[in-house]
Amino acid sequence: MKIVINGESTEIAEPLPVTDLLSVQNVKMPDMVSVELNGNILSRKEFDTTIINEGDKVEFLYFMGGGTAGRA
Hints:
Layout: E1 2-5, E2 8-11, E3 16-17, H1 18-24, E4 33-37, E5 40-41, E6 51-52, E7 57-62
Parallel strand pairs: 1-7
Antiparallel strand pairs: 1-2, 3-6, 4-5, 4-7
């Protein structure tokens, strides 16, 4: 079945929970990723119960901290 991950068409064998999709896609640092499904950000507690289906659009989002301090 076809889904879109980060803007690219991808085939997966069957509907599966977000947690399994992270594993199947070899997402690095899955504990640090946020997931947007069809335009909605999922809470981490929804990863096990939210099923990815045909035609879904998934974005894996990483939020990075950092930057530089201002100079005096």
